[in-house]
């Protein structure tokens, strides 16, 4: 008789916007118990998922499932790098960037079915000053917004957009010196610098549309300063997977970069903010983690989400807004009102 695979579900009860009380019953109902023997553990504090995942791996668990958002996935994944235990995902966060990149369904039952198929790939992960990340990391405006987002008590894409609109006018670009793996150095005045192992932040906002978790390289994205009137186009490009074609974006691929900035400040890794110093080294570790993937991912089409539809509609109305308003301050106010009207009507 074939040995059943040992699988541990680690559930973060407070991540994201999805209630999780019913998830254990869905696991019991839909998990293939002819293939798996399972246990469910709940996290009790920040960092607990890493401890549970490490214990599971040391006990020779075959798969550890992160039930939560990108932060929970990061905690689980960091315990499983360079081990024989694979990570699977049931996405329940507010952004679900890694799950969306891998095309793991947000629907719980369908995500469990992906686990039942149990197709495991060796994929890349990143290190930022020796801190693991699996989706994206970065500094500048996106890290600043992640910090503001974490300080609030509300989640979801609308709240995130509120922070972007509120803080976008006041944020000042910084000067960064970037050294790539060849030793070539260049200075940038940038709104943000992001390093992507996967393609998106979450909620189908694609910071690196061409990024792959199996190419041995990270995509480095440098967003140069732009006028506030360019913001709708940048937002549209991010949601439309065309950001790499923007004139405001510089991109290259590398296994490692070193960044020098003028002062310490926030950095995000997989959406979670932390304070780092002036010197940051970011590198890619090739095929260092085993992940359960969607075997049908390449055959499926990505569907636009609510925010994508809102921004597409907003962009289509920008020409009308511009023709009716002459001063920049009034332009910004009108565009913001238009965006919020579309969001609040959804």
What is the string of helix and strand elements?
EHEHEHEHHEEEHHEEEEEEHEEEEEHH
Note poorly predicted spans.
301-327
* Separation, N- and C-terminal Cα atoms: 53 Å
What is the gyration radius calculated from CA atoms? 20 Å
Biggest sheet, open or closed, and with what strands and sense?
A: 6 strands, antiparallel
The quaternary organization reads as single chain
Average of per-residue pLDDT values = 81
Strand order of the largest sheet: 6-5-18-15-8-9
Secondary structural class: alpha+beta
What portion of the residues fall into strands of 2 or more residues? 25-35%
Q: How many helix segments?
A: 10
Q: Strand tally, please?
A: 18
Shape: elongated
Helix content: 25-40%
